[in-house]
Amino acid sequence: MRIVLHISRQRNGGAKPKLVRYEVPNVNHEMSFLEMLDVLNEDLIAKGEEPVAFDHDCREGICGMCGCMVNGLAHGPRPGTTLCQLHMRTFKDGDQLYLEPWRSAAFPVVKDLVVDRSALDRLIAAGGFISVATGEAPDGNAIPVPKEAAERSMDAAACIGCGACVAQCPNASASLFMGAKLAHLGLLPQGAPERDARVEAMVAQARAEGFGSCTNIGECEAVCPKEIKLDVIALMNRDFLHAQILGRGAVSENAG
Amino acid sequence: MSSIAIRPIHRAVGFYEAPIGKKAVMAVTGLVLFGYVVAHLLGNLQIYSSDPTQINKYAAFLHNPANAIALLMARTFLLVCVGLHITASVQLWLQNRAARPIGYFKKDDVPASYAARTMIWSGPIVGAFVTFHVLHLTVGSVLPLHEVEGGAFLSPDVHYNVITGFQNPLVAGFYILAISLLCTHLYHGIWSMFQSVGVSHPRYTPLLKKFAALCAIVIALGNISIPVACLAGWLKV
User: Fold this and answer.
1) Do B110 and A207 touch (CB under 8 A)?
2) Domain holding A221: CATH number?
């Protein structure tokens, strides 16, 4: 099959993005999306042109490294799938595909389709951890965890931090990412002591990074490759209001 | 850590500073305004009473000088809610626009998010309509208002003012447009306010969305029926 690509290209973060048209003939329908880009790049290198820069690592949908917008949808049209697990059989012969990097003030473009997602790391550093004394592994089941909490926490922990939620959100908000981390840690007894401080620190950091805020549209959950649901954002909102109204969080302590 | 007490005002400012705090303010004020829309519709529907003076009696009750303080308080409270709702939404909108300085060449929207994505546009149009509506039927600067004797005092002849107002197709058309947008706004707003204050449930949230849609449709039909009835001549002075 033949695929026509319109790729947003820029030499670096400061350059103006420009759509460049490429044709990839002889695409095998069993290729992954990234393999199709590899074929394009081999061709560009052979012609002495600059290959298209894109991020990738595990290529099995678990690392969160790959991803770009395909026809205006983060990770392309298939729900619950990262770009590397999207296969060309999803498309038809002659399809025109627009590829663009994640666009957000908090994600500076490095080159072409590669963005710097360090802002997500700084959100984790602000509160996405638990402080426990390390040492011997505790006995199994020594800390009882309610079944429902364990399930919800595990569902949230599926987040691979790819940034698709930010890219798809009309407000470039990282709320789904933050909600996932807060649900993952806060619902377990090990993460409970810092629950108030964690949400306040992460919300403040998101503002400092220039992420937008949630307007409850739900585009993030529609494109999330791990199918994290909007209820983690409700949990974040509830945790934040709880922390603020009861005033036990880190932000209010620092203000004193 | 110092031991300086955190004043409530500092906490309130810090709360409002955060986007989630602003959304909580929008949720609470939105709930108040939704309640007002429902109460206002119930008031309006009295125009269908077999007693043509029924709605005027209701108006006379609201305008009774004995209730003047309550009326003033209710109006002030509603205006404060409107002010907070608009201020928070504009601030968030500006922040959210700044969060994506370079847009996409091509962007697909998830289906069924039309109401959610257009809140910032349905809001101001409804706001402009409410201003016109108050000028028209409360202040009386669009058309001269009729008044009737309501016992010891003059009260508005709502029955006459509404029907003559809606016999003008422009007034009726603007009303129908604004109510349609208001109900699109409510469709997203009614479930969204629960999400904003952190109430979400895998079983009840889908039901809440259905309830929001039903509310929006019922409110739209109830309100739009009035100008339609006036234009069709079913309601006469």
Assistant:
1) no
2) 1.10.1060.10
Residue range of the domain that includes A198:
117-255
Contact A165, A120 (CB under 8 A): no
Of A100, A135, A151, which residue is a domain's last?
A: A100
Sketch the domain layout of chain B as residue ranges.
22-97+113-232
Render pLDDT for B142-201 as a digit per residue (tens, 0 to 9): 888 888 876 667 888 999 999 999 999 999 999 999 999 999 999 999 999 999 999 998
* DSSP codes of every residue in A144-173: ---HHHHHHHHHHHT-----HHHHHSTT-B
Q: CA angle A60-A64-A68, nearest 5°? A: 95
Give the chain B residue whose CA is nearest to the CA of A249.
B11
Among A19, A69, A195, A215, most B C-beta atoms within 10 A, so best to mutate, is: A215
Q: Report the C-alpha gap between B78 and B74 in whole angstroms.
A: 6
pLDDT in tens, A117-127: 999 999 999 99
Is B116's Cβ below 8 Å from some Cβ in A?
yes
* Pairwise CA distance, residues A229 & A155, whole Å: 9
Three-class DSSP category at B112: coil
Q: Give the mean pLDDT of A90-108.
A: 97
A208 and A233 co-located in one domain:
yes
Query: What pLDDT, in 10s, does the model give residues B85-95?
Result: 999 999 999 99
Span of A33-42, B139-148, B200-209 with lowest mean pLDDT: B139-148
In this complex, the residue of A72, A204, A212 whose CB is nearest that of residue B95 is: A212
- Asked if the model's pLDDT at residue A186 lies above 80, the reply is yes
Rounded to two decimals, the ipTM of the complex is 0.90
Q: Are A230 and B200 inside 8 Å of each other by CB? A: yes
Residue ranges of B 70-99 with Cβ closer than 8 A to chain A: 92, 95-96, 98-99
A234 and A200 inside one domain: yes
